[in-house]
Amino acid sequence: MKIESKYQEGLKKLLKEKPLDEINVVMLCDAIKSNRQTFYYHFRDISDVVESILLKEKIGYGKKLFDIESVNKTLIAYINTNYSFLSSIHNSFASDTIDQFFYSVYYQKITGLLKENKKITSSVIRYLCNLYSNELVYWIASKRKEKQAHLIHRFNVVWDYFTNQYFIDLKKETSK
What we know:
Elements: H1 3-15, H2 25-32, H3 36-42, H4 46-56, H5 68-81, H6 83-90, H7 95-113, H8 122-141, H9 148-175
Helix pairs in contact: 1-2, 1-4, 5-9, 7-8
């Protein structure tokens, strides 16, 4: 196992015991039996380890996701599997990394889904990515109180509006 992976796994284990804000470099190094010089050779700080964990994630990798519902279900399954890690990160100084992570995943998946749809502008894609990522972060923050089926339904309604009705409404507004 590469040393970066040891730090990543060590941080995930420590997060099961205490919040991220209480974990420091010395604790992480002690947990994996490494020294601080090695840590600083590979990472700037603890948040750098968090970012490296998220960058390594491959959500839906190797699966063909044909629609927004399959993208959302895949992301929700990822959240359910990694809830304690994501919740710990969200409740810490590194909370913005979760939103950025989901935004980038959505951006990659949505641009793939809409590559043939020339009507959808980049600003609409960015808006959808922001909306979806913010909603997922809120779902994590609210301890997943909203039922998954309801969350997916809301996401589908928004998708249907922006891929169909939005442009009809926009034409009506500009023709007035």
